Amino acid sequence: MSEFLAGFAEVDYTPAPGLAVIGQHHKRIAERARDPLLANAVAMRSGDETVVIVSNDICMVLPDFVASTQEAFAHKTGLPAEKLLIHATHSHVAPATISGFWGDVAPAFMESFRESIIGAAQTALSRLEPVTAFSGTGKLDCLNWNRMTMYSDGTSVMHGSADKPGFMGTEGTRDPNLGVIFFRNAEGKIIGVIANFGTHPNCVENELYYSADIPGEVRRLLKAMLGSDTGVVYLTGAAGNVAPIIREPGRTEQPWMGEQGLLRSGLYLTGGISSLIAQAIEPIESPSLSVKHTALRIPIRPYPAPGDKCYPNSWGGESEVFYRECEADWPRKMREESPVEVRVNVVRIGDTVICTNPGEIYSDFALQIRESAPARVTLISQLTDGFCGYIPTPAAFTRGGYTTWPCITSKLSPEAGGIIVEATKKMLAQTLGA
Fold first, then answer.
1. Distance from first CA to last CA of the chain, Å, rounded?
2. Is 70 exceeded by the pLDDT of residue 1?
């Protein structure tokens, strides 16, 4: 059995104030930085296999940016481009990486961002050292509640009022699973942690500053406990339909939102992570490393007709203009951009796997992958190697709501989630021999 090597690195790419931040349907310009935006990399090697995962405090990364960054990585390292996986944590208070979505891209920032990703990856590779790998999984009761509220007229509304007549509850499931992988070096020191949980990291989503939001707080607290030189790679799990927002009749406060909610969320999530680390006594047995990739081609769905539950009910104003422009451009999009390439990956570390996809995928699909995964520990990482929009369940399309409104954030056919699940299950069977 080849020895297992790991290395961690981080690069701060926080820009000067003044850039547009995206994640909401209104324009916002950052006036300051609450906390740093980082590219956090973990490099792993065993035998002839090497992979680098870089987690970035950003809302999304588009496929063209991913491809060009991977090509530059390959040129500088000599490794195949697909050995670099690029993840977006989905902060709603980070600089725009696409134009026309209530904020324009700053080209200088994008180039700096690219260099930061590559720099973090190269440094992590340079720090590879023999390690012992550990992993664990637990469950959390809070922090990821369903954000689609259902009404008796057959519709669903994102963050709809629970006090509105006809309220029936929230739509779909939640994935309570928290996953952790960590590595100890020859001296027994924990050199880095990979943490994974499925919720929108949007406690401070409307603010006029830069922030890593929940992943940043988790990083800060883990480093305070384990040492400032400990690497922390946070992978946002299936979060398309969940957030730290509670929808209950009569509720007037949201204890997990805002500045205090962010501090509470970080403390809660870090507590779960540290508990799993403390309980992981036995290392991963035979931690061989393997990486599998599949490029799927999924069609763009037709634009719904007015009156359809998925037709945008877009709040008026600039939002209405945005959706009408999307509607007018949809025939061209279907003609020139469909089908969409959707890249999914499975990284195996012995009996532990990391399954990635480039969508804001619903929790239901994460649970389906977990239930069929022949692994002791399964991590699900969304928004990795691109961005293909929300991946709602087929049932969600029958009720409508924001995540089903066609635009850059929602475009694939209702079968997309099932296709991603089946492709992931196939790769899991291949890599784990089940």
1. 21
2. no
